[in-house]
Please model this.
Amino acid sequence: MCGIVGYVGESEKRQILLEGLKELEYRGYDSAGIAVISKDILQSFKAVGKLKNLEEKTKNFSANGFGVAIGHTRWATHGKPTELNAHPHLGKESYVVHNGIIENYQELKKRLLQKGVNFLSQTDTEVIVHLFEDYLSLLKDSFKAFEKTIQELEGAYAILLITKIEPDTIFFAKNGSPLLIAKGDDGIYFASSDTAVIGKAKRAYYLEDGEWGYVKKDEITLFDKEGNKKELEFKDLPSDKLSAQKDGYRFFMEKEIYEQSSVVVDTMMGRVLEDDIHLDEIKEGFLDGINAIKICACGTSFHSAMAASYLFERIAKIRCDVEIASEFRYKEPLLSKDTLFITISQSGETADTLEALKMAKRAGLKSLTICNVDNSSIVRESDVALLTRAGIEKGVASTKAFATQTLLLWIFVLFLAKKRGVVSKEFLVNEIKAMQMLPRVLEVSDKLHEKIHRLSKRYLHGHGFFFIGRDIFYPLALEGALKLKEISYLHAEGYPAGEMKHGPIALADSNLFTIALMPKTMLYDKIKSNVEELSARDATILAISPIEFELADDFIKTNFSSHPMIEFFEMMVILQLLALEIAIRLGNDVDMPRNLAKSVTVE
Model:
């Protein structure tokens, strides 16, 4: 999500920046920009859309001779994808590019506004450059001003800043978002991913969280988070760009499963506070008069909607109906204006979901979307958009989009429940504590992945899979089955465990694989009974649970937790990895499964 490049040296700057940004296109973006200080002249260019638009804007620009330069591709998180919101952001005589989210930007912005600072954009990033210049005016020292600025920032960031006061310097800082420094024969490079510097440099230093400093012509000065000077330990860069994009993973889907631990942090930033839920996208009064929820979605997004429907009714005490968008359009639905119409789409271009939204709008319903792509058709059509901030997802079979959709729906449920006055402060704080555990819960351990890799060789044949669960684990079973069938081409179905006796159990035999989701926190004894019935009919059982199940042929042990959503997300990762490993053993192209497209833009 977003890309950063920087350069200090003698070579022509425009081409270096554009080439570097082009190598970062795989991360996803909706606008781009560059800023250059050369011969004491500061110039910048921005464009919405693809890099070719920025290339066209800068076709007559060139910057040879010594100078500093920074560039950025932006994936909108605060504010629409416009030129004003694109990076680099300008102060009076300084520019900044930034990846991540500044959690306390509202507090900082309010303080700066009171001092008479003018803001041009809707972004959190702009506070960085104004805060730097505010300290610069007080301290008269750019190094100290940058140090004070970094000390004030809360959240995740990778920052490059240039200023006319120090025209030979790039200031940098890293916390939670990737950033590296690379040495080339013709200068020093910065990038958020090594793909941008492969071919230009052979060695790089990958910054650690809390590190910051500055680079001049032949000098790199690095400090740790305590302010102590530190030596840089350079490592060899990979030589293959596609491999570098995958960060050593075999497939983008595998990389995206591992990324879930970090992208949920981005989803929560500025929204999940220590003791409260804050959604500044939802204005006061928007939810007044809402007495029901209707959610429309397709595929994986439909499964996240189904899981959320349990939470809306259980926690927010509001009726919630979930519809498959492709069916909703033709059923002549009854729509009342006291219903909030929610759409969910990774791409924001899903044709059936978009048409369902237009129907709801024509009926006068308020609309909200959960989406990963700002300025997409569904976002533009909706009254309110909550962005998942998952970054680009290259694997066709969705993983991190599902995780962030489900999390964001959970956040919205709590926000709505608080607005409706149906939850206590204590309950809200306990839910937030559970949410804040997710980054750790979603970390994939080598031990777990290796176990699933070994298990996968037993599940390559047979006549099909049943994924079974109850309550919120039923939609998770549906999602697990969908992941497997998408990339392995094996037949798989998800069922509510209690429905097995109503027909599906007729298929049970030793060649039927049953993936049983058996959480401790929710209806354990009930699903245990359902799995025992399948075992008695000789079905092959893979149990996923924190409690040992003696009838299971295979068992993946999860951690004990007191919260069902923690168990939900832990089991989600296991199902994703299981599908991945089975598909790899079958020799399939995991990222581009046959017959499928990432964004379904036709019926």
